[in-house]
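Newbie here. four chains, one complex. Structure please?
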Amino acid sequence: MGGKVGDRRAQLVDAAVDYVAAYGIGDLSLRGLGAAIGVSHRMLIHYFGSKEQLLVEIVRTSEQRQRDLLSRLRREPGVSPIDAARLLWRQLTDPQLANQERLFFEIYGQALRGRPEAVPVLDNLVTDWLEPLVAAEVAAGADPATARNRARLGLATVRGLLLDLLATGDRDGVDAAMEEFLRLYYGSE
Amino acid sequence: MGGKVGDRRAQLVDAAVDYVAAYGIGDLSLRGLGAAIGVSHRMLIHYFGSKEQLLVEIVRTSEQRQRDLLSRLRREPGVSPIDAARLLWRQLTDPQLANQERLFFEIYGQALRGRPEAVPVLDNLVTDWLEPLVAAEVAAGADPATARNRARLGLATVRGLLLDLLATGDRDGVDAAMEEFLRLYYGSE
DNA sequence: TCGCGAGTGTACCAATTGGTACACGGTGGA
DNA sequence: TCCACCGTGTACCAATTGGTACACTCGCGA
């Protein structure tokens, strides 16, 4: 039962992502991680070949978790753009996901620096999220060109306010700014 | 002439910030930095006491450079909010400052992780920039409460689009989204 | 029963790190 | 002139890092 190698690997990488979300990916060491998740650094090398490959898997899995959030967005069929925006906002700012969001920004920063395991995330960082937002805009009647602009703007605003929230912790202030945005975005038409 | 200790220190820290803006602060080593700016790692310790103190000065100086951008904003007396926004946007997205902006996000990421030399930036990350934006809003006739919300929103949007720009490099697409924002922000009243 | 291979631990290695000890040189003041 | 001191280089140290070698155990198939 479940003794397969892949299972063990998957279990390790999952624990590793949790650890990294909590303690950061920057100064991760195999020994520290191993001690935290109950395995020797020797085993991490054994299962993943090298630290770099382990990091690749960590980044990929962390990305996958973000994508799971996204899929919840995408799966709502007839959701209006404003509801999509609110939903996105509420999900991203769930305190339980704070660590995951911090990790997002940390990986982003390292990707900008060219850290090889992190760089690939830059490709999908914007486009992946744009797609469902554009779809919601178009469904709501915007023409495709402005739909793209509006979606891009909405995504950027959400992320900028998330950055604010993580820095200041001022949930009320940031929520108020978000409401102001929604008013501008949907209220004036 | 000019042989004062402080001068040498200041010169070193300035070169260090340039180096860090180009190569990142994450895996900085005294030897690597020293070799790049023409000084032995021994001297960096001599002038700064420890790597940590050097990093503190690097972060502080990098913050100061951001603040210089800010002061140019603040010094415009009767600038309308929309012009302030455009000015801010154009300055932040100047390709010559790309490295500096990357460093901003990198330091932010590390600050979220609790890296001691970076954490202090979180305090002023939002509030410092809010002040002149709020002032511009109030001067343009907004009541103080919504002025604060609008300023916070504008700052977040600018940063979110900057994140997009650094990730995708799609200047045209991001500029278009910015224009869409300005239309919403100022056009509908 | 035997043996083989996967999973694991211990010990080790080379490289890199921040930091220190000490020695040398030059410049300015007594 | 000579002495003190600042700036600098070289050599070194201890700690930590990723990665490897080898030995051991345990379960399963022949």
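Moderator note: Chain B has a mean pLDDT of 92. The two ends of chain B are 60 Å apart (CA to CA). Thread marked as resolved.
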